[in-house]
Design brief:
- By secondary structure, this protein is α/β, with parallel strands linked by helices.
- It is built from seven helices and seven strands.
- A seven-stranded parallel sheet has the order 3-2-1-4-5-6-7, with helices on both faces.
- Helix 1 (23-34) runs parallel beside helix 2.
- Bound molecules: NADP nicotinamide-adenine-dinucleotide phosphate (NAP).
Length: 247
Amino acid sequence: MDYQVEPQALKDHVILVTGAGAGIGKQAAMSYAEHGATVILLGKTVNKLEATFDEIVAAGFPEPAIVPLDLKGASKQNYLDMVDTIEQEYGRLDGILHNASLLGMIGPFEHIEEDSFDDLMQVNVKAELLMTQAALPLLRKAPQGRVVFTSSTVGHSGRALWGAYAISKFATEGMMQVLADEMSITNVRINAINPGATRTNMRAQAYPAEDANMLKTPLELMPLYLYLMSAESQDINGQCIDAQPKR
Ligand SMILES: NC(=O)c1ccc[n+]([C@@H]2O[C@H](COP(=O)([O-])OP(=O)(O)OC[C@H]3O[C@@H](n4cnc5c(N)ncnc54)[C@H](OP(=O)(O)O)[C@@H]3O)[C@@H](O)[C@H]2O)c1
């Protein structure tokens, strides 16, 4: 399918991107801004967010905002406060890209440690739940609210050694489907993207011996990221779509 959108498809939209300081999230923030959106850059490491901010401003795109937040320690109140601030500053929120994730340990199921399991489920699942709950009142008011989750090939087909990460991505897809069904009677659309193997730090952590030049770059995935955030995708709800055709 051709996922092209108009050059200013996200004009005046306000879009929150988690994990906007690196990898796919950074590129998505850049691409949303390029298409007219004011992007709220959420992430853990401030200097990475500042670098994304600077690149967006230098390119002449709408000035973004920075929300430094460690999803591991964030509370429900943090998300409610963040959404209040967004409403006061911008008066609207049109979309969230849930992109930030931890990979955790690649290794046998029997070696999954309780503490690292809790951290991973906190960042990859519970943070998405609490942030989405806090944002839904604003998303419902948007002309076409959008929530895009990020899954993985191991989020719909379990694979040896992918442990807590795979479990968390199954949970993300479940959350996406439950919410999509509830939102089907509204203008809000809820979907997920499976990026597939992509040239980022996380991929290098999982496959350190791989030749990264063989992988797609985040930029190559952007047509789908833009499409699911735009008005064009009004008829799509509750789907997890592969950004890369099967290889
Ligand atoms: N790359 C792939 O091949 C691939 C394949 C399938 C799915 N995915 C999914 O695609 C998404 C993006 O992955 P990526 O490859 O771009 O990963 P990445 O380069 O490692 O980037 C992950 C981002 O998440 C942020 N993050 C991690 N923990 C956080 C926390 N506690 N609080 C706030 N932010 C946090 C990181 O911020 P800091 O840099 O500040 O830590 C970073 O910006 C993830 O959901 C991943 O599971 C990737």
